[in-house]
Amino acid sequence: MIIGSLSGSLSSTSLAQATSDQPIPSFALPFDQMTAHTNGGSTGRPILNGVTHSGAHLEVHETVLAPGAMPHPPHHHVHEELFLLSKGTIEITIAGKSSTIGPGSAAFVHSGEEHGVRNIGQEPAQYFVIAIGAEA
């Protein structure tokens, strides 16, 4: 699962979605033209979902998480994820260790490690996830 309760709507409507035998096509699309999906006070935007020229699965999405919200309960999956936080403050727990990160920060979750994210700030937190490897 990529971002829990938002994932069903996100993965099925990604902006650049390649067929099983074709890599993700090149594209440029302004942020304000990306389709947003809401769930409560949180918003998600799919950016791309498909395979690279080397055959690796790549999925990217943006999330704006409401204060106090979690996108889903802690979980684990085969693919790896890179979180890039652009606004707000989140607590990310990876393999039982919690860290607080702010704007400009990054977190990486290795395959199979349990992890979870929660907005611990008083304002929305915006982050981008780059998921690499086998789909969950």
Rg (CA only) = 14 Å
Question: Low-confidence parts lasting 5 or more residues at pLDDT below 50?
Answer: 1-14
Distance between the termini: 5 Å
H/E order of the elements? Answer: HEEEEEEEEEE
Strand-residue fraction? 35-45%
- Main sheet characteristics: 7 strands, mixed
- Specify the structural class: mainly beta
Instruction: Tell the overall outline.
Output: globular
- The domain tally reads 1
Helix content: under 10%
How many helices? The count is 1
Could you characterize what this model shows?
The chain has 136 residues and is mainly β. It has a single domain, classed as Jelly Rolls. The chain is built from one helix and ten strands; from the N terminus they run H-E-E-E-E-E-E-E-E-E-E. The strands form two sheets. Strands 1, 2, 3, 4, 5, 8 and 10 form a seven-stranded mixed β-sheet that branches. The N terminus is likely disordered.
